[in-house]
Automatic annotation (TrEMBL):
Region (Disordered): 60-79
Function per UniProt: Required for the processing of the 27S pre-rRNA.
PANTHER family (UniProt xref): RRNA PROCESSING PROTEIN EBNA1-BINDING PROTEIN-RELATED (PTHR13028), RRNA-PROCESSING PROTEIN EBP2-RELATED (PTHR13028:SF0)
Name of the protein in question: Uncharacterized protein
Biological process, per Gene Ontology: ribosomal large subunit biogenesis; rRNA processing
Protein family per UniProt: Belongs to the EBP2 family.
Keywords, sorted A to Z: Coiled coil, Nucleus, Ribosome biogenesis
Lineage, highest ranks first: Eukaryota, Metazoa, Chordata, Craniata, Vertebrata
Ranges annotated as biased composition (Polar residues): 67-79
InterPro entries found in the cross-reference section: Ebp2 (IPR008610)
Cell compartments where the protein resides: Nucleus, Nucleolus
A Pfam entry, by short name: Ebp2
Keyword Coiled coil: yes
Length: 79
């Protein structure tokens, strides 16, 4: 009888572990989707810098550089 109870307990633990694992995976996916949406809105200019972009420098945005800065020649460019 002890083997049966021990096997039953192991099955229950495996089910619990798998449930926790899937919950964590879904939570990460939701967090990533939220962050990506915030980044897209920021890059399109619909919102100010969101909380999820605290560590990202300001120049990472698509609209951070002006047209003159984009077209300027580098130091090694031919003149």
């Amino acid at each position: 009888m002890e083997k049966f109870e021990k096997a039953k307990q192991l099955r229950a633990l495996r089910k619990y572990g798998k449930k926790v694992q899937t919950e964590v995976l879904h939570m990460r996916q939701r967090e990533k989707a939220h962050t990506m949406n915030a980044i897209k809105k920021y890059l399109k200019g619909f919102s100010d810098k969101p909380d999820s972009l605290e560590g990202v420098p300001a120049e990472c945005g698509a609209k951070a550089r002006t047209k003159s800065q984009q077209m300027s020649k580098g130091t090694n460019a031919k003149q």
